[in-house]
Amino acid sequence: MTDLAVHIINHPLVRHKLSLMREADCSTYKFRTLANELGRLMAYEASRDFEIETFKMQGWCGEIDGKQIKGKTVTLVPILRAGLGMLDGVLDLLPTAKISVVGLQRDEATLEPVPFFEKFVNDIDKRPAMILDPMLATGGSMVATIDMLKKHGCKNIKALVLVSAPEGVRAVNEAHPDVKIYTAALDSHLNEQGYIIPGLGDAGDKIFGTK
Ligand code: PRP
Ligand code: URA
Q1: How confident is the model at residue 2 (pLDDT cuts 50, 70, 90)?
Q2: To test ligand 1's pocket by mutation, which of 87, 141, 197 has the most ligand atoms within 8 angstroms of CB?
Q3: Cα gap 43→106, rounded to integer Å
Q4: Is 3.40.50.360 the CATH number for 7-208?
Q5: For residue 59, how far is the Cα from the chain centroid?
């Protein structure tokens, strides 16, 4: 697996919380809470290389140097539906983020992503983007989302994923080697139905309580 380019977030809190999500009887409420908590921790890690600039400000004792994040505000890009399950947590850390939305539904037979919605924020060509999706399985949905963002001129793209399969990481690495993937876990493989093993099961169903 050393040939895969992926940033695995090995923080003890991340490992602990992800294990709680893997429990077969994890409730909708608990799963959704944990997805947001992990989104928050992952956003902290994925924003580590944001550029900082210095500006002059008035402190209590006079003028001082302040620091601020340089450039246009990041856009978060949740992939419907399951990506919404991480959005609030990420927004806790990046409250001024603009939100772009991509709707993709994986065809259960072919495993191909079927697009049904897209709405990107203004100036997307000047903003960094963070794609949010709990699952990176075949990689089809992530590659299609990156394709859409790049078609709109977006140049600085990161993917935040709770659980990745090697197949999905490879697909993204091959199609978009410039996109850095942050994940809480790199799991073993995909089963015949395209589910990640051991994975989380159907993350969308667990977040929305539809199963
Ligand atoms: C899931 C998941 C990803 C996609 C991953 O969404 O949230 O978007 O599948 O699979 P892939 O890497 O093989 O494309 P799904 O299409 O099931 O929709 P949902 O979010 O409504 O559950
Ligand atoms: N989508 C999911 O929700 N889970 C998987 O394991 C694969 C795709």
Answers
A1: low
A2: 141
A3: 25
A4: no
A5: 36
